[in-house]
Structures are given as C-alpha cells and as structure tokens.
Amino acid sequence: MPDIRQIADRLVALCREQKFVEAYKELYSEDAESIDPLYAYHPPSKGLINLIEREKQFLAKTQINSITISDPLVTGNHFAIKLSMDYTHEVRGRVYLEELCVYHVKDGKIVSQQFFIG
To answer: Which CATH number do you get for residue 77?
Structure first.
C-alpha cells in the first residue's frame, strides 16, 4: 500500500500532466467525497463515479491555458497543494483560479478533497 507521500506526489504528477480523470481512477476511494466552492449550490459530491463524471463535464466545457501546482505539504493523514489555473470556460469565459486543495487519505486512497478558492 502506498504511503501518503507517494499518493500526494503521484496526484501532483498526474495533475501537472492534466491527467485528472486518471488521477481519480488511480488514487481515490470508491466512496470519496469532494467539497468544492465552484459547486456551492450543490451538496458535496460523493462516490468515485460521480467525481469522475463531474470532472469530465468540467473538462468538456473548458480549455486549460496553463496550470501550476505546488509540491505537496504532508502532515498525518492529510496533504495540501496550491493550484493555479488559467482556463477558458465555454460559458464563463477566461478564468484565473487560485485554490488551496486539501486531501484526506485513508487505507492508501484519497477519501476526501476540499478546495478553498483564494
């Protein structure tokens, strides 16, 4: 079973390559949940299938112009990264987003993620 540092480093590597769906499939628990202020009017998404579908829908409407992801900061069963993304959304237009992404790991899988937009 990978340790939390390996999981954090792998997530960062996949996201830097913009392999977001692959990251979900490889690193997340089947019952993972996501708390995301971009979807503030919806309850947290739960379940790996739902997280992957939401990501696919976002990517289908978005062109990523650039993305920068910090190295992870790890403590206990949690890690955090800073993500900066410049993207063009088919409805919202050009968006520059900075967020702190916090992950909880249990039994070798990410069980929750929460995003804080700066």
So the answer is: 3.10.450.50
